[in-house]
Amino acid sequence: MTAQPTLAAADSLFDEHSNYTPAPGTEYPFSISDIARATAKLLGQGWTAKSGYWGVTGTLTGPYIAEFEFIVDYQGELTLTYTPYPVDGFPDAPQLPDGVKECGEGVYLEQASVADGLDNLAERSAAAIRAVTGYDPADFDFESSASRQHHIDTGRYLRKGDAQSV
Predict the structure, then answer these.
(1) Alpha helices, DSSP H only, in 72-159?
(2) How far apart are CA 9 and CA 3, in angstroms?
């Protein structure tokens, strides 16, 4: 015999008109993939983001082989997971911004919540990615035809000076 939910528990799911509450799509003003997209915009040229299934993840790509996946981990932390590749040249000991902590899969934004707002979470994420990667847009060639072609072929721009070797 299966226990029936109590009337109080069932009632909390619906409003006085028997509509699900909160209404679908209204509980959270943005998704995790929105944070990835807003972060790509802040990082600028050479960075793109795409949504994962249902918008519960987002993947950020840039001028590196490593990709950053935005997820909420099992502890509820907004986490940016990535696998560093030696060719990317990430700093060995990055100076992470305040409120960004290392974890086994990457970094997470300490005590981040939807109440922080999309713009704030994107700014914190962009700062974390700049620290982890050592990213400086001045290091990359966004102008040469060889670098633009490389971007078309691979999705990544060349570092300055690499266009001559291609």
Answers:
(1) 118-133, 145-154
(2) 13
- Give the H/E segment covering residue 10: helix 7-11
Q: Both ends of the chain: CA-CA distance in Å?
A: 71
Q: Taking a C-beta distance cutoff of 8 angstroms, is the pair 118, 93 a contact?
A: no
Cα dist from 87 to 129, 143, 148, whole Å: 17, 22, 20
CB 44 within 8 A of CB 137: yes
Distance CA 67, CA 80 (A): 9
Checking if the pLDDT of 7 tops 50, the result is no
Query: Residue 124's CB: how many other CB atoms inside 10 A?
Result: 22
Amino acid at 115: A
52 vs 33: CA distance, rounded Å: 7
- Going by pLDDT thresholds of 50, 70 and 90, the confidence category of residue 22 is confident
Q: How many CB atoms lie within 10 A of CB 39?
A: 27
Instruction: Write out the E strands in 55-104.
Output: 58-61, 68-72, 78-81, 100-103
* 99 close to 126: Cβ distance less than 8 angstroms: no
Report the DSSP beta bridge partners of residue 102: 107
pLDDT for the residue numbered 28:
78
